Amino acid sequence: MKNIEFVIITGMSGAGKTETIRIFEDLGFFCVDNLPPALISKFAELCLQSEGKVDKIALVIDIRGRDFFNALFEELAALEEESIDYQILFLEASTDALIRRFKETRRRHPLAEEGRILDAIKLEREKLERLRGSADKIIDTSQLTIKELKKELKANFTRIELNDKINISIISFGFKYGMPMDSDLMFDVRFLPNPHYVKSLRALTGNDKEVQDYILKWPVAKSFKDKFFDLIDFLVPQYIKEGKTHLAIAIGCTGGKHRSVTFTNKLSDFLKNKQYHVIIEHRDIDKDI
């Protein structure tokens, strides 16, 4: 279990545990929210039995566990007995920030069944005082944006890094069938010479070498390819620094069969050579034009 990253995320209600677990999930962790503390050691055993398939785990353990929460320190001791390394990340925020967040979301504090939210926050601080003292890292989220929280996690957990293997989806499409609405970047290649008007190429697609050779032989296509790939090569690392874990690029031509398919395939090859994880989809390649 020494090769397993085991992080326990805890802290004040409203301090950002939900956003934090999402960040950990984007970083490739197997995440469980609101796991009863009594199940921690059993969960660790399951991870061990996975033989390395589950090696990054993040668990949210907090006051929502109510009476079960009292078993936390006993379970942590059990992890130590099994030589399982773990880290505790404690999230907190000022009372004013917590009250404001509960009012904005209109959610009830777990300990405010009948009393005031201010009393519930005070009670929670008392209940979590010992756990806070055992934390490896305490982050005050009172003034943090999500972007800043991501940077904070990267800076303080040396084994947790922003994902430099960003997932990149590239989709070719035809404008006549509508634009994909979920793309981050969209490029129009309808200005390039169209193989549709070459009788011998019309029935082929951008997956065929003949079509690719025809499109890329033109100076305008060569110039565009160099500038296009240079732009993408610049942008992807910037998105990674920003904390983005998925990038969707759409490339469109008239019918989504020749030019867009060609450049989707070429861009995919370019990015794969850069060691990025790439998935391609030719949305309209089989449609009639």
Characterise the protein shown here.
It contains nine helices and nine strands. The protein is an alpha/beta fold and 289 residues long. It folds into two domains: 5-156, P-loop containing nucleotide triphosphate hydrolases (Rossmann fold, 3-Layer(aba) Sandwich), CATH 3.40.50; 167-282, no CATH class. A five-stranded parallel sheet has the order 2-3-1-4-5, with helices on both faces. It has a four-stranded parallel sheet with strand order 7-8-6-9, with helices on one face. Helix 2 links the parallel strand 2 and strand 3 (56-60). The longest helix has 24 residues, at 219-242. The model has no long low-confidence stretch (mean pLDDT 85).
Question: How are the SSEs ordered, and which strands pair?
Answer:
Blueprint lengths: L4 E7 L5 H10 L3 E4 L6 H10 L6 E5 L11 H10 L5 E6 L2 H11 L11 H18 L2 E4 L5 H11 L10 E8 L10 E4 L20 H8 L2 H24 L3 E8 L5 H15 L3 E6 L7
Parallel strand pairs: 1-3, 1-4, 2-3, 4-5, 6-8, 6-9, 7-8
The CATH H-level superfamily of the largest domain is: P-loop containing nucleotide triphosphate hydrolases
Quickly name the level 1 CATH class of the largest domain. Alpha Beta
Could you state the order of secondary-structure elements as H and E?
EHEHEHEHHEHEEHHEHE
Mean pLDDT: 85
In whole angstroms, how far apart are the ends?
A: 57 Å
Number of strands: 9
Q: In what range is the share of β-strand residues? A: 15-25%
Domain RapZ-like N-terminal: 4-157
Organism: Selenihalanaerobacter shriftii
GO molecular function, one term: ATP binding
Keywords: ATP-binding, GTP-binding, Nucleotide-binding
